[in-house]
Amino acid sequence: LAAAATGPAADKYTTATVRPLDSVDLNALGLSQPGTLTVGTLSDAPPSICIDSASQFTGFDNELLRAIAR
After folding, report:
1. Which of 1, 3, 34, 43 has its CA 20 to 30 A from that of 55?
2. Which letter does DSSP use for residue 30 in this model?
3. Beta bridge partners of 57
4. Reduced to 3 states, what is the DSSP secondary structure of residue 23?
5. What residues make up the domain containing 66?
6. Between the CA of residue 2 and those of 5, 6, 9, 10, 62, what are the distances in Å?
7. What is the count of structural domains for the chain?
8. Which of 32, 34, 33, 59 is nearest to 45 (CA)?
9. DSSP tag of 22
10. In a domain, 14, yes or no
């Protein structure tokens, strides 16, 4: 067996950098002021989007968007 290469030259892929949310420049993203978040999603893609018995949109997409809005 050949020895595996090590070090930066052996890395063919870029490693993602994860930063805490408080290190994001909210002003640069236009998020420093409260406002309205307008989003769009498909309405015909169950189970991602469904209409419940109360005629309200539900499903993964809607729950995710509601969580982001909070």
Report:
1. 34
2. T
3. 51
4. helix
5. 34-70
6. 9, 12, 16, 14, 51
7. 1
8. 59
9. G
10. no
Rounded Cα–Cα distance for residues 45 and 27 (Å): 34
2 within a domain of the structure (yes/no): no
Distance CA 6, CA 22 (A): 34
- Written as six digits, the tokens of 2 are 């050949």
10-54 pLDDT, tens digit per residue, is 667 778 887 776 677 777 877 767 777 788 877 777 778 888 899
Give the Cα-Cα-Cα angle 60, 54, 38 (nearest 5 degrees): 50
pTM of the prediction? 0.43
Single-letter code of the amino acid located at 18? V
Please answer whether residues 20 and 40 qualify as being in contact, where contact means their C-beta atoms are separated by less than 8 angstroms: no
CA-based max dimension of the chain: 64
Beta carbons of 45 and 60 less than 8 angstroms apart: no
Does residue 63 fall inside a structural domain? yes
Q: Which two tokens stand for residue 51?
A: 């209409």
